[in-house]
What does this fold into?
Amino acid sequence: MRLQAIGKDGTFREYVETPFSGEHLESVLEDWMEKNPGAILEDGELLVVGRQVRTNLNSIIDLLALDRDGNAVVIEFKRGRTPRDTLAQALEYASFVADLDADQIEDVFRTYTSEESAGLADAHREYFKLSPDEAVSFNKEQRIVIVGQNVTEEIRQTSRFLRAKGIRTTCLEFTFFRSDSDEQLLTTNMVVGSEIVGGRRVTAGKASLTTREEFDSRLDGHGRRFFDQLFTYAEDHGFIIYWGYSGFSMNVHVDDMDVVLCYGYPTGSGPGQCLQSVLFRQGGLLFKTPAPEEVARQFRDKAEASGLFRRGGNEAKLIIDRQFSAGEMERILSWLDDLAEAVREHAASA
It folds into this structure.
Protein backbone atom coordinates (compact mmCIF):
# COMPACT_ATOMS: atom_id res chain seq x y z
CA MET A 1 0.00 0.00 0.00
CA ARG A 2 1.43 3.37 -1.05
CA LEU A 3 0.33 6.46 0.84
CA GLN A 4 0.90 9.86 -0.75
CA ALA A 5 0.38 13.34 0.63
CA ILE A 6 -0.40 16.05 -1.92
CA GLY A 7 1.57 19.27 -1.43
CA LYS A 8 0.28 22.77 -2.15
CA ASP A 9 2.18 22.71 -5.44
CA GLY A 10 0.46 19.48 -6.48
CA THR A 11 3.48 17.25 -5.96
CA PHE A 12 3.28 13.98 -4.09
CA ARG A 13 5.12 13.29 -0.86
CA GLU A 14 5.28 9.61 -0.03
CA TYR A 15 4.73 8.11 3.41
CA VAL A 16 6.67 4.86 3.72
CA GLU A 17 5.24 1.92 5.62
CA THR A 18 7.51 1.37 8.60
CA PRO A 19 7.80 -1.50 11.10
CA PHE A 20 6.30 -0.10 14.28
CA SER A 21 8.02 -2.52 16.64
CA GLY A 22 11.45 -1.53 15.41
CA GLU A 23 11.47 1.73 17.35
CA HIS A 24 8.36 1.89 19.51
CA LEU A 25 7.30 0.22 22.70
CA GLU A 26 3.78 -1.17 23.07
CA SER A 27 3.19 1.59 25.62
CA VAL A 28 3.37 4.13 22.77
CA LEU A 29 0.51 2.36 20.98
CA GLU A 30 -1.38 2.25 24.29
CA ASP A 31 -0.90 6.01 24.64
CA TRP A 32 -2.29 6.67 21.17
CA MET A 33 -5.31 4.43 21.56
CA GLU A 34 -6.00 5.64 25.09
CA LYS A 35 -6.28 9.18 23.73
CA ASN A 36 -8.37 8.09 20.72
CA PRO A 37 -10.74 5.40 22.04
CA GLY A 38 -13.22 6.09 19.25
CA ALA A 39 -10.82 4.37 16.84
CA ILE A 40 -10.93 1.02 18.66
CA LEU A 41 -14.41 -0.49 18.38
CA GLU A 42 -16.59 -1.28 15.40
CA ASP A 43 -19.69 0.29 16.92
CA GLY A 44 -18.79 3.43 18.79
CA GLU A 45 -16.83 5.20 21.48
CA LEU A 46 -15.27 3.74 24.61
CA LEU A 47 -14.76 5.16 28.09
CA VAL A 48 -11.33 4.05 29.30
CA VAL A 49 -11.55 3.14 33.00
CA GLY A 50 -8.17 1.51 33.60
CA ARG A 51 -4.70 1.03 32.20
CA GLN A 52 -2.20 -1.67 33.17
CA VAL A 53 -4.82 -3.26 35.41
CA ARG A 54 -3.39 -6.11 37.48
CA THR A 55 -5.49 -9.29 37.64
CA ASN A 56 -5.81 -11.89 40.40
CA LEU A 57 -3.28 -14.02 38.47
CA ASN A 58 -0.76 -11.16 38.50
CA SER A 59 -1.10 -10.55 34.76
CA ILE A 60 -1.68 -7.10 33.29
CA ILE A 61 -4.60 -5.84 31.18
CA ASP A 62 -3.32 -3.17 28.78
CA LEU A 63 -6.54 -1.13 28.71
CA LEU A 64 -9.91 -1.71 30.33
CA ALA A 65 -12.89 0.24 29.03
CA LEU A 66 -16.68 0.40 29.01
CA ASP A 67 -18.89 0.75 25.95
CA ARG A 68 -22.09 2.77 25.84
CA ASP A 69 -24.12 -0.16 27.18
CA GLY A 70 -21.79 -0.63 30.14
CA ASN A 71 -20.14 -3.78 28.79
CA ALA A 72 -16.53 -4.24 29.88
CA VAL A 73 -13.98 -4.16 27.05
CA VAL A 74 -10.57 -5.81 27.48
CA ILE A 75 -8.00 -4.38 25.03
CA GLU A 76 -4.70 -6.14 24.30
CA PHE A 77 -1.92 -4.53 22.23
CA LYS A 78 0.79 -6.23 20.20
CA ARG A 79 3.40 -4.21 18.31
CA GLY A 80 4.10 -6.71 15.56
CA ARG A 81 2.62 -10.15 14.83
CA THR A 82 0.05 -11.49 17.23
CA PRO A 83 1.43 -14.69 18.82
CA ARG A 84 -0.82 -17.73 19.14
CA ASP A 85 -1.34 -17.19 22.88
CA THR A 86 -2.72 -13.65 22.40
CA LEU A 87 -6.35 -14.71 22.59
CA ALA A 88 -5.66 -17.07 25.50
CA GLN A 89 -4.29 -14.10 27.41
CA ALA A 90 -7.26 -11.93 26.48
CA LEU A 91 -9.73 -14.65 27.54
CA GLU A 92 -7.92 -14.94 30.87
CA TYR A 93 -8.28 -11.18 31.35
CA ALA A 94 -11.96 -11.29 30.37
CA SER A 95 -12.60 -14.11 32.88
CA PHE A 96 -11.09 -11.94 35.61
CA VAL A 97 -13.15 -8.91 34.61
CA ALA A 98 -16.34 -10.99 34.46
CA ASP A 99 -16.13 -11.53 38.23
CA LEU A 100 -15.88 -7.80 39.03
CA ASP A 101 -18.97 -6.07 40.34
CA ALA A 102 -19.82 -2.42 39.70
CA ASP A 103 -18.11 -1.21 42.88
CA GLN A 104 -14.88 -3.01 41.96
CA ILE A 105 -14.88 -1.50 38.47
CA GLU A 106 -15.47 1.88 40.09
CA ASP A 107 -12.40 1.26 42.28
CA VAL A 108 -10.35 0.58 39.12
CA PHE A 109 -11.70 3.82 37.65
CA ARG A 110 -10.75 5.78 40.78
CA THR A 111 -7.22 4.44 40.61
CA TYR A 112 -7.03 5.34 36.93
CA THR A 113 -8.30 8.89 37.46
CA SER A 114 -6.40 9.35 40.76
CA GLU A 115 -9.66 10.61 42.26
CA GLU A 116 -10.68 8.85 45.46
CA SER A 117 -14.34 9.70 44.94
CA ALA A 118 -14.66 9.47 41.17
CA GLY A 119 -18.21 8.40 40.33
CA LEU A 120 -18.28 5.84 37.53
CA ALA A 121 -22.02 6.04 36.82
CA ASP A 122 -21.88 9.83 36.48
CA ALA A 123 -18.73 9.73 34.37
CA HIS A 124 -20.30 7.11 32.07
CA ARG A 125 -23.54 9.08 31.75
CA GLU A 126 -21.63 12.28 30.98
CA TYR A 127 -19.20 10.68 28.52
CA PHE A 128 -21.89 9.01 26.43
CA LYS A 129 -24.42 11.85 26.84
CA LEU A 130 -27.09 9.53 28.22
CA SER A 131 -30.50 10.99 28.94
CA PRO A 132 -31.55 11.30 32.61
CA ASP A 133 -33.86 8.27 32.38
CA GLU A 134 -31.35 6.09 30.51
CA ALA A 135 -29.30 3.83 32.75
CA VAL A 136 -27.06 0.85 32.06
CA SER A 137 -26.01 -2.20 34.00
CA PHE A 138 -22.22 -2.37 34.13
CA ASN A 139 -20.34 -5.49 33.11
CA LYS A 140 -23.26 -7.66 32.02
CA GLU A 141 -21.08 -8.76 29.10
CA GLN A 142 -17.35 -8.72 28.35
CA ARG A 143 -15.78 -7.85 25.03
CA ILE A 144 -12.27 -8.50 23.72
CA VAL A 145 -10.25 -6.29 21.38
CA ILE A 146 -6.89 -7.34 19.89
CA VAL A 147 -4.80 -4.57 18.33
CA GLY A 148 -1.70 -5.48 16.33
CA GLN A 149 0.33 -4.52 13.29
CA ASN A 150 -0.05 -8.03 11.91
CA VAL A 151 -3.05 -10.00 13.16
CA THR A 152 -2.30 -13.55 12.10
CA GLU A 153 -4.83 -15.78 10.41
CA GLU A 154 -4.85 -18.09 13.45
CA ILE A 155 -6.00 -15.19 15.64
CA ARG A 156 -8.54 -14.02 13.05
CA GLN A 157 -10.06 -17.48 12.65
CA THR A 158 -10.32 -18.06 16.40
CA SER A 159 -11.77 -14.60 16.90
CA ARG A 160 -14.46 -15.26 14.31
CA PHE A 161 -15.25 -18.52 16.10
CA LEU A 162 -15.60 -16.69 19.43
CA ARG A 163 -17.90 -14.11 17.85
CA ALA A 164 -20.06 -16.87 16.42
CA LYS A 165 -20.33 -18.33 19.93
CA GLY A 166 -21.43 -14.99 21.36
CA ILE A 167 -18.12 -13.68 22.74
CA ARG A 168 -17.76 -10.31 21.06
CA THR A 169 -14.18 -10.24 19.81
CA THR A 170 -12.69 -7.55 17.59
CA CYS A 171 -9.32 -7.55 15.82
CA LEU A 172 -7.86 -4.23 14.73
CA GLU A 173 -4.84 -4.16 12.46
CA PHE A 174 -2.81 -0.96 12.16
CA THR A 175 -0.18 0.23 9.70
CA PHE A 176 2.46 2.80 10.60
CA PHE A 177 3.87 5.26 8.02
CA ARG A 178 6.62 7.83 8.15
CA SER A 179 7.55 10.53 5.63
CA ASP A 180 10.98 11.91 4.73
CA SER A 181 10.21 14.92 6.93
CA ASP A 182 9.53 12.58 9.89
CA GLU A 183 5.75 13.06 9.85
CA GLN A 184 3.86 10.04 11.15
CA LEU A 185 0.58 8.45 10.09
CA LEU A 186 -1.35 5.53 11.51
CA THR A 187 -4.07 3.73 9.56
CA THR A 188 -6.38 1.13 11.10
CA ASN A 189 -8.33 -1.70 9.54
CA MET A 190 -10.86 -3.82 11.37
CA VAL A 191 -10.08 -7.34 10.18
CA VAL A 192 -12.54 -9.06 12.55
CA GLY A 193 -15.57 -7.32 13.97
CA SER A 194 -17.07 -5.20 11.21
CA GLU A 195 -19.63 -7.92 10.55
CA ILE A 196 -22.57 -8.24 12.94
CA VAL A 197 -22.56 -11.62 14.68
CA GLY A 198 -25.00 -12.07 17.53
CA GLY A 199 -24.53 -8.48 18.59
CA ARG A 200 -27.15 -6.84 20.71
CA ARG A 201 -27.50 -3.80 22.90
CA VAL A 202 -28.19 -4.64 26.51
CA THR A 203 -29.69 -1.96 28.71
CA ALA A 204 -31.22 -2.12 32.10
CA GLY A 205 -33.50 0.10 34.08
CA LYS A 206 -32.74 2.07 37.15
CA ALA A 207 -32.92 -1.02 39.32
CA SER A 208 -29.23 -1.57 38.51
CA LEU A 209 -28.41 1.66 40.37
CA THR A 210 -28.82 2.31 44.05
CA THR A 211 -32.02 3.89 45.36
CA ARG A 212 -32.88 6.40 48.05
CA GLU A 213 -34.01 3.56 50.30
CA GLU A 214 -30.82 1.54 49.77
CA PHE A 215 -28.73 4.66 50.27
CA ASP A 216 -30.53 5.49 53.53
CA SER A 217 -29.98 1.95 54.79
CA ARG A 218 -26.21 2.49 54.54
CA LEU A 219 -26.19 5.72 56.56
CA ASP A 220 -25.59 6.07 60.27
CA GLY A 221 -27.67 8.44 62.39
CA HIS A 222 -25.52 11.48 61.55
CA GLY A 223 -25.74 10.68 57.85
CA ARG A 224 -29.51 10.25 57.85
CA ARG A 225 -30.05 13.62 59.55
CA PHE A 226 -27.64 15.38 57.19
CA PHE A 227 -28.87 13.87 53.92
CA ASP A 228 -32.55 14.26 54.87
CA GLN A 229 -31.91 18.01 55.08
CA LEU A 230 -29.86 18.00 51.89
CA PHE A 231 -32.52 16.18 49.87
CA THR A 232 -35.21 18.57 51.12
CA TYR A 233 -32.98 21.48 50.14
CA ALA A 234 -32.40 19.97 46.67
CA GLU A 235 -36.13 19.48 46.11
CA ASP A 236 -36.92 23.04 47.23
CA HIS A 237 -34.31 24.49 44.84
CA GLY A 238 -35.09 22.30 41.84
CA PHE A 239 -31.75 20.49 41.91
CA ILE A 240 -31.66 17.05 40.24
CA ILE A 241 -30.47 13.91 42.01
CA TYR A 242 -28.95 11.13 39.88
CA TRP A 243 -28.27 7.84 41.62
CA GLY A 244 -25.04 5.96 41.01
CA TYR A 245 -23.92 2.53 42.20
CA SER A 246 -23.08 3.60 45.73
CA GLY A 247 -24.05 7.26 46.00
CA PHE A 248 -25.59 10.16 44.10
CA SER A 249 -24.81 13.38 42.31
CA MET A 250 -26.71 16.64 42.88
CA ASN A 251 -27.03 18.67 39.68
CA VAL A 252 -28.20 22.09 38.59
CA HIS A 253 -29.90 22.16 35.17
CA VAL A 254 -28.87 25.10 33.01
CA ASP A 255 -28.90 25.66 29.24
CA ASP A 256 -30.09 22.12 28.43
CA MET A 257 -27.30 20.49 30.44
CA ASP A 258 -26.79 19.19 33.96
CA VAL A 259 -23.80 20.42 35.95
CA VAL A 260 -22.77 18.42 39.02
CA LEU A 261 -22.50 20.42 42.24
CA CYS A 262 -21.53 17.59 44.57
CA TYR A 263 -21.47 13.86 45.17
CA GLY A 264 -22.88 12.16 48.26
CA TYR A 265 -21.67 8.83 49.61
CA PRO A 266 -22.78 6.49 52.44
CA THR A 267 -20.78 4.50 54.95
CA GLY A 268 -18.92 1.55 53.47
CA SER A 269 -18.24 3.35 50.17
CA GLY A 270 -14.72 4.15 49.01
CA PRO A 271 -14.81 7.82 50.07
CA GLY A 272 -16.77 7.05 53.26
CA GLN A 273 -19.88 8.89 54.45
CA CYS A 274 -19.31 12.33 53.00
CA LEU A 275 -20.27 15.12 50.63
CA GLN A 276 -17.70 15.81 47.88
CA SER A 277 -17.49 18.90 45.69
CA VAL A 278 -17.24 18.59 41.90
CA LEU A 279 -15.36 21.75 40.93
CA PHE A 280 -12.42 20.44 38.93
CA ARG A 281 -13.72 17.09 37.74
CA GLN A 282 -15.66 15.87 34.74
CA GLY A 283 -19.26 17.02 34.86
CA GLY A 284 -18.60 19.93 37.20
CA LEU A 285 -18.01 23.68 37.02
CA LEU A 286 -14.74 23.73 35.04
CA PHE A 287 -15.78 21.00 32.59
CA LYS A 288 -19.28 22.25 31.82
CA THR A 289 -18.83 26.04 31.85
CA PRO A 290 -16.11 28.48 30.73
CA ALA A 291 -15.42 29.47 34.35
CA PRO A 292 -11.70 30.14 34.96
CA GLU A 293 -9.85 27.79 37.28
CA GLU A 294 -9.46 30.59 39.80
CA VAL A 295 -13.23 30.51 40.43
CA ALA A 296 -13.07 26.81 41.31
CA ARG A 297 -10.11 27.42 43.61
CA GLN A 298 -12.01 30.21 45.36
CA PHE A 299 -14.98 27.92 46.05
CA ARG A 300 -12.71 25.17 47.34
CA ASP A 301 -10.80 27.60 49.57
CA LYS A 302 -14.04 29.11 50.88
CA ALA A 303 -15.28 25.64 51.80
CA GLU A 304 -12.05 24.86 53.64
CA ALA A 305 -12.08 28.24 55.39
CA SER A 306 -15.50 27.40 56.85
CA GLY A 307 -13.81 24.80 59.03
CA LEU A 308 -16.36 22.21 57.92
CA PHE A 309 -14.73 20.89 54.73
CA ARG A 310 -11.25 19.51 54.21
CA ARG A 311 -9.17 19.04 51.08
CA GLY A 312 -9.79 15.81 49.18
CA GLY A 313 -7.45 15.87 46.17
CA ASN A 314 -8.40 19.03 44.29
CA GLU A 315 -11.88 19.01 45.78
CA ALA A 316 -13.48 19.98 49.07
CA LYS A 317 -14.77 17.09 51.17
CA LEU A 318 -17.26 17.22 54.04
CA ILE A 319 -16.87 14.23 56.37
CA ILE A 320 -20.23 13.45 57.97
CA ASP A 321 -19.23 11.92 61.30
CA ARG A 322 -21.21 14.13 63.65
CA GLN A 323 -24.40 16.13 63.86
CA PHE A 324 -24.15 19.59 62.34
CA SER A 325 -25.77 22.56 64.04
CA ALA A 326 -28.41 24.67 62.32
CA GLY A 327 -25.81 27.37 61.72
CA GLU A 328 -23.37 24.91 60.20
CA MET A 329 -26.02 23.47 57.89
CA GLU A 330 -26.90 26.99 56.82
CA ARG A 331 -23.26 27.66 55.87
CA ILE A 332 -23.04 24.39 53.91
CA LEU A 333 -26.26 25.04 51.98
CA SER A 334 -25.32 28.68 51.40
CA TRP A 335 -22.06 27.48 49.82
CA LEU A 336 -24.05 25.23 47.49
CA ASP A 337 -26.37 28.16 46.67
CA ASP A 338 -23.39 30.31 45.68
CA LEU A 339 -21.88 27.49 43.60
CA ALA A 340 -25.14 26.92 41.72
CA GLU A 341 -25.38 30.63 41.00
CA ALA A 342 -21.79 30.67 39.70
CA VAL A 343 -22.62 27.76 37.40
CA ARG A 344 -25.60 29.64 35.99
CA GLU A 345 -23.62 32.87 35.50
CA HIS A 346 -20.68 31.23 33.73
CA ALA A 347 -22.93 28.97 31.63
CA ALA A 348 -24.84 32.06 30.47
CA SER A 349 -21.58 33.73 29.41
CA ALA A 350 -20.55 30.83 27.16
Q: What stands out?
A: Residues 196-207 have pLDDT under 50 and may be disordered. The two ends are 46 Å apart (CA to CA). The chain has two domains: 3-192, 210-348. Residues 210-348 form one domain.
